[in-house]
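Before the break, one more example. Copy the sequence into your notebook; we will annotate it together after we see the structure.
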Amino acid sequence: MTRPKDDWRRWIAENLLLGNPPEVIREALVRNEFSEEEAAREVAGALASPYVQGGSRIANRLRKREWTLTVYGRLSRMRANGGTIERRERPSRDEFFEQYYFQNRPVIITGMLKSWPACTKWDFDYFRERCGDREVEVQFGRESDEDYEINGPKHKRLMPFREYVDLVESAGTTNDFYMTANNASRNRAALDVLWSDIDPITEYLDGDSPDKGFFWLGPAGTKTPYHHDLTNNFMAQVMGRKQIKMVPLHDTAYIYNHLHCYSEVDASAVDYERFPAMRKAQVLECTLSPGELLFIPVGWWHYVEGLDPTVTMSFTNFLRFNDFAENYTTFQHL
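Here is what the structure looks like once it is written out:
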């Protein structure tokens, strides 16, 4: 037995609470150098433990909640166009909030960014001219760390914006460096001269909010792995195209959420042998083009990949309540 006994006992308890049959657990222990007598004794002891018995009552309540979510999932699939992300031309404020925001449904909004000077002005030369000497924060070394998103703070580097723009322009396809919302605190101030090129989306967002959005810039091939946010989000595409895969909040049980808001599943090449429950997840896909605005509802899992060098702005300052993090407590391993 290479693992300490207490580790195995935690493993036994977890698998019992997940509903795995005792005989299957015993067989797994025997395959891992337990004798048959010892395996039987350990599993019997766990079954008799008042702690495991109490945990089983909690697990049963959680299974009831998961059943409730599967009902929402099945009903959602029954909707006309339930398997696609709708595109709408400038829905009114009431339409957006009633049909999408309050119903936790994604939508791609077209025509809302027509007035943005950024959509015609922003390119690499413009960035170098306007704020090339400003110091910005960027994530590097992402391709050498499979948990690059979780470990994002370890990958931060400061550099002149001009040098980073040069890198993006000449990089080809790579996920090794990316300026993301995780770099926002410094970059919002460093790139403040660009904000005048963005008109407030006052139909849906709080125009008086100090939140000026989050600036994303990266080469083709940048990836943001499956995760969910604790707020509703707008993703406004300014340059280049992004491919997005989304899994509804009600399919969380299928996406192998192992830590905080992250999934173990690689959306670019799903390993269904390792993650068989992903076959049950509803995956909605779209390509977001310049001038389009994607609404990502709170709790929806999403994966994003740059098909070209891209610039994106994201926003969370909606006119309706959006502080869903206030009662979120599951930051630890699940």
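The first strand starts at residue 86 and ends at 89. The chain has two domains: 5-69, 85-327. Try to locate both features in your own notes.
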